[in-house]
């Protein structure tokens, strides 16, 4: 995935300022930065939930169009997992996972259900298929959301602070699933406040500030010796507790 010179304005406010970022196949990139630095906006523009003011996003050599039928098809290549799980409350866990593949991809229902059960197994929820989301814990709901995104066979997965709405004891079970995906070779962009996770799982850390990518480095060198003053200041606040 190649993000080239993406700028995004909300009115007069520049939320993304000439952001360029390449994510190679199988690579895990962690995006960190202070609140308001543009991390969610970056995820949303990559998935075209927001239009861009300038720049382009190219996946597997194919530019994402601004709108239309082709966008809907290409958008399915990008799986997105948000802080809020956004599951359909009145549908079973299984239905939540099969809905998009059957409706958007026209996968036959038995086939989609078989795949959904495999994915539930993978995220450790094989026995929860018949439940409604409200009958699950937050960590379990987030794992359903991950299974739902994977059901579309995305080329890239975007995670926007997938654990920040969770109680501490549930964070690990979700991070374990994401780590497992990383190990399996999934290409991923993960916005996270979990510095330990970024350090151990990511191939690369991207630090954002004021809508810009300020620093990009391997986790070990970023966390031990950030190059910029802004990154040093950020790390000293998040690592101090
Ligand atoms: N729809 C919108 N309209 C106007 N401004 C917006 C909109 N969405 C985001 N912004 C602004 O853009 C900036 C970047 O927001 P964004 O949500 O990308 O930050 P973030 O890095 O994800 O922060 P956090 O860590 O709190 O999630 C913020 O100043 C925010 O107020
Ligand atoms: Mg955000």
Automatic annotation (TrEMBL):
InterPro entries: AAA+_ATPase, ABC_ATPase_HisP-typ, ABC_transporter-like_ATP-bd, ABC_transporter-like_CS, MetN_ABC_transporter-like, P-loop_NTPase. Keywords: Amino-acid transport, ATP-binding, Cell membrane, Membrane, Nucleotide-binding, Transport. It is found in: Cell membrane. Coiled coil: none annotated. GO terms for molecular function: ATP binding. The keyword ATP-binding applies. Residues 1-235 form the ABC transporter domain. Its main location: membrane. It is a peripheral membrane protein. Belongs to the ABC transporter superfamily. This is Amino acid ABC transporter ATP-binding protein. It comes from Actinomyces lilanjuaniae.
